[in-house]
Amino acid sequence: MPNAFNPSVSAELPGPAWLADLRREVAEGIDDVAPPSSDEEVWRYSRIGDLELDRFQPLVVQAPLVDPLAGPGATDVNAATLVLRNGWLEDSWISAEAAGLGVTAGPIGDLEDGAAYFASVLNVPVDLFGHLNRAFGPEPLAVVIPDGVRLDAPIVVRIHTDADSSALFPRLFVRGGLDSDVTIVEHHTSADVVSMVAPVLEALVEADARLSHALIQDLGTGVWQFAHQVFRVAQNATVETFVAGLGGCYARTRTDCRLVGRGAEAHLTAAYYGEGDQTHDFRTFQEHAAPDTTSELLFKGALDDTSRSVYSGLIRVDPEAVRTRAYQTNRNIKLSPDAWAQSVPNLEIETDDVVCSHASTVSPVDEDQLFYLESRGVPTTIAERLLVEGFFNDVVKRAPTEAVGLALRAALVERLDRRLRNFRPEAAA
Amino acid sequence: MTTERVLRIEGLCARVGDTHILGGIDLEVRAGEVHAIMGPNGSGKSTLSHVLMGRSGYEVTAGSVTLDGTDLLGLAPWERAQAGLFLALQHPTEVPGVSLESMLVEAAVAGGRDPVGIRESLVVEAERIGFDEKFLDRPVNVDLSGGEKKRNEALQMSVIRPRYAVLDEIDSGLDVDALSAVARRVEDSTNETGLGVLVITHFSRLLEVLQPDRVHVLSHGRIHASGGPELAERLEAEGYTGILGEAADAPEVAVELSLGPDPFADPLA
Predict the structure, then answer these.
(1) ipTM of this predicted complex?
(2) Contacts with B87 from chain A: Cβ below 8 Å
(3) How are beta strands B85-88 and B164-168 bridged, if at all?
(4) Could you give the domains of chain B?
């Protein structure tokens, strides 16, 4: 392990004693954690071999704010807003209504139950980045929705990176109480830096609750991202996850969705767009551990230039998870002959009484559809653009809030405009 | 000097892979004329329509196609459409996620035409052609019945206002009402905008509502007989073997067989 990741660095981070103890324990054992290798199935096709971890250092103090952050939107339309910069809480706000209902949003270290919540969904980190997050995350956050509380407005968490050459470890814990209903939008952005960010989300969705979660990943193209999100979904609860993969140099998002209560339900959605030499890497685990559970996944991506994508998804059905319904669809459009997409669906089913399906495709724009548009007089590049926009329609419709849908659509349009300008320089004006 | 308004196909030969399908097609469709191409399965009717629009996979090996003097074969499919050619497909493609309006707007913008009136034009033409207005907001052809898709092709033709339209089996899958609505709209365009039409069909039923000026019988990639509307009636009565005789099986001798008047004679002369 590079020198920068040593226990004395970890020991300088702020927080309560329980957090310091936990950090120290993880930091002292960090040299025993094997670094990921593309020999492991879960890292196969990844670019982990290209990562030079010693280029990045964890921060012991917050970096000075150079450019003020553009807000994540007017705070008054949100139930709460948290701004995490380089792993430290920069700003937080909660509406009077949400506060009145007992909702809390802030550092997990400030909570009475903080120690009980921390790592309660993800007991053991799944890889080196998870361990590093525990040892070097300066200010983990928690959002706690009390039982029975339903919020119409979303809680927005802006996670921004602006420290160059740094290794950053944002962390968020969410508890949606019994019969609660909340939408949480994480917006990950960065300045034009070369850094590594390894965010962790732990979400506990209690019985009969609904959690809708979005991650808009709009990092700069110099940033390596290793995100891990874990959802534990209790009886008759529903989780909807949504990822917009837009930025990053290498952007990996691993999603573990564990349906642990009877009748639990999950809908997982992602849209990604690769340009230049970006790599998007998605690993999903739909784990059915209880009867009558349903999971349904739709991931769609478009890859231009020499960009790459990996989708690898496992549907796992435990022996007791009878009457499981599990669906998984991954579709990729290659917009350039030099783009590359890999789609690997896997099933591990230990009971007979299930309905499972998976479908994956990697293909160029549909030739018949392209010809149809061309035969009406639509120029080839514009026809491709219409088709790609249309390809993402069903995913955009699944965005948890209108604002997220609009943001995704705008980001896609921006990229498709850029693509068109590269074809037709005269259209740049 | 004004350019002669004619879609002129001369000596057109084409192949798909190693299979030669068109063996020298000569045809002239003048503005306002309706020409019907009839022929048995596998005679090359659909290939001709795809070759005219420039679909990839169809390779022209000889001949020329000009539209009002513009060489079409050197153009990309969308440029052929912008030059004034329209192809109504036998099996209109479903295009999920793309609306009819956005497709036609992009086509208009690319052609330097004002896209502002397109919505209104769609509504007016949909009414005229009996295309349910609620389908206008669906993605192109998605979840439409076979008949609705054909009406949609005629609708788009009316909005785009091409100079020449190739209608590939537009009658298949259409009920009688739809057939006459579509035929009437095509007929009207020949009068209103001088649309030249090449209608490709199996059956003479369409030609009862859409009166052709000329009928051509295609077999083995060549036109073996040309004539007036009476040729379609003969086909109905005698079948292709009746008209083509041995030609249906022996194209090399059929070259001599020409039943109608000279197909290249100027019908307006």
Answers:
(1) 0.90
(2) 375
(3) parallel
(4) 6-92+162-254 (3.40.50.300)
